[in-house]
User: What shape does this take?
Amino acid sequence: MRTVVEQAVAPGYRMLRRLKNRVLNLVDAPVIVLAYHRVTRLASDPHQLAVKPENFRAQMQHLRQNCRCVRLNEEWSGLREPAVAVTFDDGYADNLHEALPILAETGVPATVFVSTGMLGNPGEFWSDDLARQLLDGGDYPPSFELRDREHGGRWPAASPAERQTLHDRLHRAMLKIEPPRREDWLGQLARWSGRGGTARATHRTLTPAELRELSASPLVTIGAHGVTHTPLALLPEAEQRREITQSRRELEELLGREVTVFSYPFGGWRQFDGTTRRLCREAGFRRAVTTFPGQVHRWTDPLQLPRQLVRDWNAATFAARMESFRV
Assistant: This one.
């Protein structure tokens, strides 16, 4: 919750930011990079990652009719008008089966960033698995005890509200721990909840064959997104390098083409750092995207491109949001 001071300052800050953007846009046409994850219908979407197909179609139709749509890996220096680039993070199977047909119908190009450790993986992304273990409905034990040297504790878990609170607490903590420790927590949860076993078909990731099919579309560019979907800044430099270079190498070997763009997993201010950017540059990436909002100009650091996160908005809301992204 924002403080009284923050609430008072925020409107003035937004006004100054819009004024600055208007001035900058007169000097240099901006590129607005949009961030998606999924195009599908979900019974439950606690992380708000899915856009329903009918809303995605309306959004892409709006872009095609009102914007210049560019690719993330193309040269932008010659732009004379504002442009939009569409991106997807993670590599869910619905990127091929539900998003691609709409992209093809509307002619909008997109970049899909793939976490290679999840290609063909029978499990779910760790954040999805966490939600499945805690927010799946039904009966649960009255409390959950986490055994961990730093974050351990016991919390009530009998009611949906208590489990939502527990989910949020564990999700925040999992963004700060290394993959083996994260898997240990998920194992503890599975034994406690009794909800281990087969992953949900609705949450599966691309197989290698599906990725090749997706990559074969002339509208699609494939980018790297690390191996284990871990915020890179919490890893030592050697592990960051492995995540960055291995994800690129695996994609290039699978697809037989160069991969030049990267998306920082989670991509917030504290989830990558100067070391991460340097390693991306050394690995040969020409552009890398974040998840903090903003516009891309010719002076923007190409390894720190801002993006605007898109939610499940209808046509009218999306049009209004796009207008706000430009000012």
Remarks:
- The CA atoms of residues 4 and 326 lie 28 Å apart.
- The chain has ten helices and twelve strands.
- The two ends are 26 Å apart (CA to CA).
